[in-house]
Every structure is written in structure tokens, then in C-alpha cells.
Amino acid sequence: MKDLLREQLIRIVQEYGADILKNPKKVNSLLKDFCPEESRGKIFAITQCLREGIHRELIDSSKRKTIRIEMSRLIRKIHDNFGLKEDISRWAVESIALALRIISEKETVITTEKSQVIEQKFVETHKAISHERIVEEREKRTTNGDELIHVERGSFIMGDTWGDGFPYERPTHEVTLTYDFYIGKYPVTFEEYDIFWSATRKSKPDSEKWEKWGRGRRPLINVSWNYATAYCNWLSEKEGIPKSYDDKGNLLDKYGKTTTDITDVVGYRLPTEAEWEYAARGGNKSKGYKYSGSDNADDVAWYASNSKSMTQEVGTKVPNELGLYDMSGNVWEWCSDVFRDYSSSPQTNPYNSIGSCRVFRGGSWYCRMSFVCVAYRDSVSPTATSSGLGLRIARALP
């Protein structure tokens, strides 16, 4: 029997050129279109190799004529980083080398026959890894102490699904997020931001209100979009991962190049508007609540009727279906996107970077009830600040 997946990878490189390997998502899609469901584990291995830049390292080592030594190192790298068995890692690296014509079929260790034998191992390993990651990484904490919740990918209807909202919450439309991500369990608090300020001296809150209300676990307020993204970049740099924004507020991919594709961004960032609403609604565990976690705003939100005209400590109301707190009320939360009117067309991984005003969501301590609905949206200049405006961080699942 032929190794159909390996042959298809070779054909893809022949048709599109070696540069196609710089686009793991495209390769993944092309392989899935051609190959049977049973090969999805192998496709996972190839995709992870490309995301790790294995193809570039293979090309470099072939120029230095150290290909055999480098291939052994790269196989160990994939094995160690993703927990794949050695024969699975070897098959993936060898397949990419074959597609690049760096080695010949005769030089491979994993032959076609061996590939058929380990086919089932790929499927089982991929399933085990996926399940293990979901269980182990349901909650995560940054090195600065921010707590994060894992949100699984999915689809939902975005906008005023109740029919009693504001015009800019309509038309409702289907949104699909094709990736898992993390989002803050709580809004960022003074406790976390003050560490950032001590390390960078960028901007420290200095309002009499803050001192009167208290700091600590109260949500950060009076932070502009620009300083919110600076906090995200600082977190990324603190953990040694590529930052998400340049000085102009453009998104950056892992190579530091500007992008409008949110799936290319690996560092900490503000949630997209779609991510924010999907998470606020409860993700794939949603029960359809109007407010984040309940149809009764008082259960989940600090707003004008119950806040005593000030922010409250985070996590003191009921969480939503995902275990997220304060997504309705307490403070508005910046989103990464620039505001735009909705379209009725289905959207996949939407992100808007054209325009000037940035979106904020969730309502705050001084808002009436209609503003703390999960569908409500508004926008303002990225330099603006408010005693009811804070942030919540997000990051795509590595």
C-alpha cells in the first residue's frame, strides 16, 4: 500500500512551491481535503512540525550538509515538545524532508510499510494528547498571577438574539471560531497591574477615587487601550513569547510581522470582540443567558442598581458557564478590534483593524441593566480612559 498522505504532501509542495510550508493552516486544509479521517493524526504531526519551523531548519541543514545530524535533533525536538512517539515524529520530519527533496525515499527509516503499521498509533496519540491538554490546561496562570480559563472552539449566533437591544447589536449573524483560546478568569486587577507599573514605570493609576475605593483585587480602571495592550506585550515578553502588538496597535505574528489574522498571533492580547461575546455567553456550554451566567443581572453583575456607585472586588458574583467572573458589569473591558457595523453574513475568526475607535464590552458599575447584556457593544478612542473601563487578557491556545 502507498503512503497516500506523504505522497499528497509531496504533490502540494510540487504544485505550490516550498513557500507553502510557511503556511501550516493552508497545508493542513489541503491535506484534510484529500486524506481520510484516519489520517488526521498524521496531519496533526505534520502541522505541528511546520508551526515549529522544521522545514526551515531542514533547508538550512541541507545547505550545511549536516542533514542527518539535524534530522535526529529535529525528531527529538518534536518528540519532546508534543509527546509524540519517536516513530511518529520521525515519519513527520522525514515526510517534510522528502517533499523538499532533501532526502530520497531510499534514505527514509519509516518506510511505506512501517507507515501503515503506525497509522493507528497516530490517531490514538492525537486523541490522547488533545484530551490530556484539555484536562490539564482547563485553567492556567501567567507568571504575573493572572488566572486564565480555556475556551474551546465553536460557533454561536452573535448580536441581539433577544430582539430588544440596540441597533448596532444587529443584524445577528453566525460566528465560528476555529481555535481554542484562553481568556482571563477575571478582569485585570490593580494587584496585577501594579507589578507591571513597578517593572516598567509606564503609567500608574493616580486618582483620588481609586485610593478611596481601594486597590488590590478591585478591577483596574482608567486604563487606555494603548496601555492595556502594553500590559499584554509586557506579559508576553516576561514569559519569553512573541508580543502581539506593535507601537501602532497592529497585530503581530510570531515572527514579528503585522497581520490581520488573529490565529497567527501567539502572545497575550486583548480578546477579539467575537471571542469576548462567545466566552461571555458561555462558549460551547452556553445556556443562552442574557447576562453572563444568568438571566438575572443581579446574580452576575455589579451595575448602577447594586454597585453603591463604585467598582467591587472581582469574583464576588456568580460565574458564567465557563467559570468566568464579571463579564457583565463591574468594568467595561477593552477588546482588540476596531468597531464596525455588523453584517448578516456568517463570519469565521472575525477581526477588524480598519478604523479608529476600539470596541469595549460588558457594561460597568455605573451602567443601567441593558448595558450589561452580553450583546451590548460600544467604542471609543484608544487613548480614552474612564473610571468604569478596564481590561481582560486573552491568548490563543499554544
Helices and strands, with pairings:
Layout: H1 4-16, H2 24-34, H3 40-51, H4 54-63, H5 67-82, H6 86-99, H7 112-136, E1 139-141, E2 147-151, E3 154-158, E4 173-177, E5 181-184, H8 190-200, H9 208-213, H10 225-238, E6 251-252, E7 258-259, H11 273-280, H12 297-300, E8 332-338, E9 347-348, E10 358-361, E11 377-380, E12 389-390, E13 394-396
Parallel strand pairs: 4-9, 8-12
Antiparallel strand pairs: 1-2, 2-5, 3-4, 5-13, 6-7, 8-10, 10-11
Write up this protein.
With 398 residues, this protein is an alpha+beta fold. It folds into two domains: 133 residues, no CATH class; 258 residues, Alpha-Beta Complex (paralog of FGE (formylglycine-generating enzyme)). Helices cover 36% and strands 12% of the residues. It is built from twelve helices and 13 strands. The strands form four sheets. It has a four-stranded antiparallel β-sheet, covered by helices on one side. It has a four-stranded mixed β-sheet with strand order 11-10-8-12. A hairpin with a 5-residue loop joins strand 1 and strand 2. Helix 1 crosses helix 2.
For CATH, the homologous superfamily of the largest domain is named as: paralog of FGE (formylglycine-generating enzyme)
- Which structural class fits the helix and strand makeup? alpha+beta
In sequence order, what are the helices and strands, one letter per element? HHHHHHHEEEEEHHHEEHHEEEEEE
Helix proportion: 25-40%
3D shape: elongated
- Strand order within the widest sheet? 1-2-5-13
Distance between the termini: 35 Å
- The CATH architecture of the largest domain would be Alpha-Beta Complex
Mean model confidence by pLDDT = 89
